Amino acid sequence: MGSTKRVDEEPSPSADVPAALGMRERFTRFAAVGLSGVVVNLGVLWLLAGLLRLREVLASAAAIELSILWNFALNSRFTYRDRNAGAVSGFAARALRYNLVSLVGLALQLGTFVLLRALLLRYLEREALGDLRYLAQCAGIALATAWSFAGNLHFTWRQAPRPREAMP
User: Is the pLDDT of residue 73 over 90?
Assistant: First the structure.
């Protein structure tokens, strides 16, 4: 009889698994993956809302989730590949954890935008942000990126404790 492999099982580690990455290199990879996710997000939004005429809110939600799954898949293979085998969670559980971290990142980004918008409108005595909306959005993106990187490193790809070596 053949063996059955569970969906959430990791492939067995192989010799081509890279050594642990430094924090700078890992963050650079994380940022590159994030940029590719923006392209996926906007492309799916264009396809669903622009071409297929799906309702915009539904199209946006689908584009966001597909870009999250895209980012997870790339981060799993490119950014955190060296941490997959030692992770406390299997593939499917890490995908769910990644979605949870992304949800918190969305809340941080939106909350930062709303807070900065209120402060800028009040103290600059304006009725609209105008081009300052991009500054507020970038501040939220920076905060959410930092959260997502740390959250995924320590929650999604958290490592199982290594067995302690026997004391002589």
Answer: yes
